């Protein structure tokens, strides 16, 4: 394409290049029967034909038959290939027979976005459709209670609070016949743990519930269905890819700032009349790209979590109306919210997983247009790996979602909510982890246990009313100098953004953090007029305070354990980085007189590396710290981990800890534990293929390193990993000791 040639020329200004171009072409799924051949209500047949659906795809027909037969199913099919119609047609037919369905979308915005689509068919059939969320007016709620709709549209947060606190909502939900969970690929990590426990509450630990699930991008099995919903279900697959043509390009940034490059590329495309969506995985980097774009004379708004909801809605409306050149977003715009036609997607960093890559790429070129997708690869180990093996980038398997159904922090929230609903529960009737959750809640004074019965108290209701399915960590509220709330961040991730003197960006405005108070969970910030030439990252340490082993295995002859962990995070200071240039390390470091400490529980693995006999203490520190970094990088390939899903700690004694960053655990560390041999193989490729002197961003440096990438050696890590895989090291287990390095 001519536009690719021009972009290739423009990239030379930054010493960057188009490294690989891949053209994706996908045809329609196989056709099935004509609508008139189906055992459908005649009015529904007529409505479908008027809507433009005359023939079902084969997979849609299979879904139709199974759903009509009350079989649990998960429908997987690419963007624009009719997965919504695959479940909508049978539930409309069932509605005409008097049966009621609940459609659950992961967010309130997406649920409301689907209304128009559903109304087009339901109105023609005289069916009652209602939406019930936090924004539903009281008058409309009364109507829904009085005359329950054939199709109720809601979200997990509403179900969580409604089941616990509203008897009328409870009745509305529990008298429904079918439950549809759309966009299930979103339910990974902590949100997946919440969904499993929420479904346990809906079905009240029985199998008498009809569940339909749907997703455009997920690697699904019957095992996943059982893990996610607690009941058995079948998988129905349509087309694995989106319909239409898309041009995918990998860009080698070659040392240039990926944030500047993303803003510049957006400017080139916008000035050619294209609508652009830029993705980052960091809230602060989204703000940074938007600010840099101002220098290229284009207006990119920011859409991310942590903003006030009204701000996000304004951005969506302006983009839909064509009032913006484009948007820089975190995963908040991955889902199919209608934001109008997007011509090009720029991924300023390699997405955390291939599933997320496909989901983001699917936002470009919809409505029968060719989509342009650009991914900027930087100097980190996995980006360098894919620059060496570009075909592997596009031939990856779509992985299943990862979550931890045993996350006690999550179960505590749902156990308390279920108790508020039931008032009294006999503990002998519950699964083991629920009983354990009630015991912890009892110790914390949130519930009461008497003679094997749990009882709700006023504290239980308060606890549930203040809980959230979007987080399990404490929430830090952010206030400006006028004491106006401007955002919020969840712990422990808040410690990476809101430490004293940190540069904090929100809605393209620059603030300096003046104070962080973990006792009352507030941060005070001051707005800065003008531009700063630097941004900040924290200097911090981590330590493993407690470890409770749950599993153990041998990997290349060395012991690896997995279990519950109690961690201490201490923010020691911060480091500044130049915005418009790429530095291997920060330019200045600043230390606090008193560290900021936060303790939390999670899950992770503990690796017992052997010592190399001729290595000194410093050699050991450099060896195991580098190996920790490169194994976390390798987890992006073998476990679908994002850059921030996992953290690590190294000890001079050879012990390496890799843990889930989420409080309570996300399941990613467990997957790495199970696939650790593969991770070492990828790690070997990374440290072996780099031609640096002894450590750089392409191999063992990490942008999230707590000590600013000190004590790292690529060559020593290479020696260790090589020796492990070849089995040439003597493995003598020893006690963990020495100062931790992160």
From TrEMBL:
GO terms for biological process: interstrand cross-link repair; nucleotide-excision repair. InterPro entries: DEAD/DEAH_box_helicase_dom, Helicase_ATP-bd, Helicase_C-like, MZB, P-loop_NTPase. CDD domains: SF2_C_Hrq (cd18797). Residues 260-409 form the Helicase C-terminal domain. It holds the Pfam family DEAD. Transmembrane segments: none annotated. GO terms for molecular function: 3'-5' DNA helicase activity; ATP binding; nucleic acid binding. PROSITE patterns: HELICASE_ATP_BIND_1 (PS51192), HELICASE_CTER (PS51194). Keywords: ATP-binding, Helicase, Hydrolase, Nucleotide-binding. Residues 64-236 form the Helicase ATP-binding domain. PANTHER family: ATP-DEPENDENT HELICASE HRQ1. This is DEAD/DEAH box helicase. It comes from Saccharolobus caldissimus. The lineage of its organism: Archaea, Thermoproteota, Thermoprotei, Sulfolobales, Sulfolobaceae.
